[in-house]
Design goal:
Layout lengths: L5 E5 L3 H4 L22 H4 L5 E7 H4 L8 H16 L3 E7 L3 H4 L41 H13 L16 E3 L16 H22 L5 E8 L34 H12 L11 E6 L1 H6 L3 H10 L16 E5 L4 H7 L6 H23 L10 E7 L17 E2 L2 E2 L6 H5 L10
Parallel strand pairs: 1-2, 1-8, 2-3, 3-4, 4-5, 5-6, 6-7, 7-8
Antiparallel strand pairs: 9-10
Length: 429
Amino acid sequence: MSSVIAKGVALGQDGTTHPDPVTQPQDFRFVSPSGAAVKDHFSDTGTTWVRMWIDLSYFFPSEGAVNPDLFAQLAAQITAANSAGLKVMLTMWKFPRWMNGTTGLPYTGPLPVPAGQWDTFQQGPEVGAEYKFPDDVSAASAWGWAVAAILSRFSAGRPGGVPAGEPVIDSLEILNEPNWSYFPQSDRTRARTAGCKCGQMLVSAVAINAWYGNQTIIAGPGIVAGRFLFETDGLSSHIQGSPTNPQGDPTGALALHTDAVVFARDVVSAFSVASTVPGPKCVFTVHNYGDVSNQTLVVAEVREYALRGTWAGHPDQDVNNPRLWITEGGFTAKNAADMNPTAPDPVSYFHSLQAIRVYAAFNKMRNNGHDAATGGAGIDVVMNFLFESTTVAKYDCGLMDPVVCGAGGVKRPGRTPFFGPPAVRAGWV
């Protein structure tokens, strides 16, 4: 069991779909006009992981074909991270329309769309046809071919070995927030199907990883813990009622029916470790925005009620001590506005509250994350976005202001508890 929690930075999707070391701050190679480099935020804070993206709809534009330019740019970023001594997670995102069977749909852009074609209850508009799960996610499917194409380029176990200076990833996360991927979005009961689909994807990815010597940690499915999205088992969404969060449901009737727990159980049920490769390197991943905002530890409930006694993934194969990685999390401006919609200076209020909530969440994880006896979260890695993004994939939970035309990039107060000096980040690496 790890005695400390590793920190990681998630760069934005734009850094790999629109890479440019001169103009794109989400590109790991980016250096600002003032000479500040993205990699400096790792070296001066002891951060050990970087998370990059591979948007399948960009990298695999047509059946059997890849985008060589984007792969070359991604390889250069991974190589730069390798040279900086960082561990690299590559997260698969979205699906080409030729792969998921939506090519014939009239819908090609953001929501809204005609009723019945792509209904949604989400806050969109970024949900599109590229999010829909493919029907077939077996190792022999088109999706499985994409997994193999990625591992054949970036796994340490690829055929012929890894020549000096060639890019290597340490982990491949096979999905990001599957709550966006069931169809139609208006039918929340389909979340149960989505959980099973995620488990099948993990089974396939683990099998493909074995072709390359199990040298890459397969991760997934990046579920949202604590966000009320699914309405599983016909129940309304709740996070209250479990031993780790007892308020709000004194009878405990809903204790085992939280969104994240039920969804995770479906994933685990479909992912049978015993029926795949012995000792697969596979870790369960979650996003904890809700925990940071609500000062809860839903990730601990996922571990206690969905994974314990069943999940034997990375790193120590102990079903009674399953591990979790948090591959996204943080505190957003919307969280702050919900708490105080009349704040006279909403930006300053958001930044100050972000620092407070990030620090409190990290302390909760640090204090409980390795205490198996109390159902602790078993957290080994925690990641947060570095820069706020204002372009294709928008998010404002970053620890620094956006970089636009060489300006911005100002450190927010929330950066200190995440990256701060040893006295602040004691127990973190």
